[in-house]
Specification:
Helix content is 37%, strand content 19%. By secondary structure, it is an alpha/beta fold. The protein binds zinc ion. The site of zinc ion has 6 residues, from loops.
């Protein structure tokens, strides 16, 4: 899914209009409380937590991501207060391994839920992780909290809900999407951000080229009317995604040029390759440093 220059140019044309749309949407403050997507589909928003998507059916409730461990009780309480939300949570998707997504795994695993994730996500949750850029440590999850139904490529549930691997390594190397065809809603976890610069977790496989590829994969799963729900920030439209492909494609191009000229991360930050996006996206230095490191990690693993 890595774009050719021709594809980048093509999306750039779409991108300018989309960018303005994205601007208007992201100027709105983050809504608190639940967002109703359909009668049986909600985004549960608990303060300080990432998006939790809840689908209710006659068997109970399906969740896409479960909030952090600290927020888990509040998240599950908010889910049970939804219309038809008091049934058993039978299925939980982990869009990736980060603790903001996997904090309800232990409770729901003990309650017998199917925890669906990409196999790479399970592998990360089985080991202790330390991020090299800030020393932050993550403890492996107990067995009962680990995904118990993993996959490599894609799958479909009896309810018709589809899921698949975002193999481009956008946010981590275990990103997945969940598509609700009846409601035309696509949950994408960390593979797209609705607000601000994404966390660039290159230690567990994400990289700036993967962000571009992942967004293009989202475009190929979605259609013009699909609403795309990221883990962070407001719901995105199809043109919003096109605008992001354009922006991250441009930044990725600029960074690779610097990498091939032998520049280092500090020089990349000083060159301000995301300057024109900062008014909307916020200061970019931290993101650019991580993004450059991610190219280094991805393109020259032996360096
Ligand atoms: Zn994440």
């Amino acid at each position: 899914m890595y774009p050719t220059r021709r594809q980048l140019l093509k999306t750039a044309v779409v991108g300018t209009a989309g960018l303005r749309l994205a601007l208007a949407q992201q100027a709105a403050p983050e809504a608190s409380g639940n967002v109703k997507l359909a009668d049986d589909l909600y985004i549960v928003r608990v303060h300080g937590e990432g998006a939790v998507i809840a689908h209710t059916d006659r068997d109970g409730v399906l969740l896409v991501d479960g909030g952090s461990a600290a927020g888990s009780s509040a998240v599950l309480k908010a889910v049970s207060a939804l219309p038809n939300g008091s049934g058993k949570i039978h299925t939980l998707f982990n869009t990736h391994w980060h603790p903001e997504q996997t904090g309800s795994n232990e409770k729901l695993g003990m309650a017998g839920a199917a925890i669906i994730a990409h196999e790479n996500t399970r592998l990360w949750l089985q080991q202790n992780i330390t991020w090299p850029w800030n020393g932050q440590k993550f403890k492996k999850l107990p067995k009962i909290a680990q995904p118990n139904k993993t996959f490599y490529d894609k799958g479909t549930l009896d309810s018709g809900i589809r899921y698949g691997y975002i193999s481009d390594a956008a946010h981590t190397d275990g990103d997945l999407y969940v598509y609700f065809p009846q409601q035309n809603i696509l949950a994408v976890g960390g593979a797209a951000y609705g607000q601000g610069w994404p966390l660039m977790d290159w230690w567990t496989g994400g990289w700036i080229g993967g962000i571009v590829g992942g967004l293009q994969r989202i475009q190929s799963v979605a259609n013009r009317d699909t609403k795309i729900v990221p883990a962070v920030g407001p719901v995105l439209s199809f043109p919003d995604i096109a605008a992001q492909v354009d922006m991250y494609g441009t930044i990725n191009d600029r960074l690779s040029q610097m990498l091939y000229k032998g520049r280092g991360p500090s020089e990349a930050v000083e060159a301000k390759p995301a300057k024109e996006y900062e008014a909307r996206m916020g200061p970019s230095d931290e993101f650019i440093r991580r993004a450059f490191e991610s190219q280094w990690a991805y393109l020259s693993p032996d360096a």
